[in-house]
Write the structure tokens for this entry.
Amino acid sequence: MTFDLDTTPLVTLEDGVLTLPISLDGKGNALDGEAISQMKAALTALLAGEIDAGAVLLVGLGKNFCAGGNVAGFAAADDRGEHVRELADHLHAAIRQLDELTIPVVAAVAGWAAGAGLSLALAADFSVAGPDTRVLAAYPGIGLSPDGGMSWNLPRAIGPAAARAFILSNEPMPGERAYALGMLTTFVEGDVKEAARALAVRLASGPSESYAAVKSLLRASGSATLSDHLDAERDSIARLAVSPDGIEGVDAFVAKRSPEFGRG
């Protein structure tokens, strides 16, 4: 690791997990511009190989994951359109970085995930919810339309009709219902943040090349023919069969022991 985490004091790296706060306690858990700036700096370093992490964890530093954008800031701006455009560009740069990652991304969706907060949860590979989780589109409530990829990711998660009804109705939804629909990936009865961190730590010690290949194949599947995608799957699994993690995984299975990935 060559990136100095002292330059991003909100960001932490422990047990192979890069933890990125998106909202701050005491500020209503609205999306925080400085937190997103630090996220972008850390993700830039991670993508450049300057940070050695096996998973990313998105959290809110408070009782909620993220209650959406700072609406009071929208109202106070001299040029609301330009202000909101700049905020969307700021967020979307981070969303694009998350999408580029080859390692798993986990979101600890505790409390409310509304507006941009829900968009960030949808951008994660794993979104962990609990009994106190509530999700809300939020945008129609203030006369706006989605950002952060919500209108792209949500139809792919729950289908176009359900996504349209959820966003347009702007009704809060309990986490358990969101999980049942496929909007969120994981539901736990205990502490959401603890469960999300435990998941991220487990993933961080997993087969990184396998994760990267899975994410690459899934990204390509939407625009590939079945025949072309079958060729891509063949090439990928053959390549991984002679990779350090592939060799260790197969040998451990045959030996009936737990694999120790990341040693090669």
Q: What stands out?
A: The longest strand covers residues 17-24. The chain is about 50% helix and 15% strand.
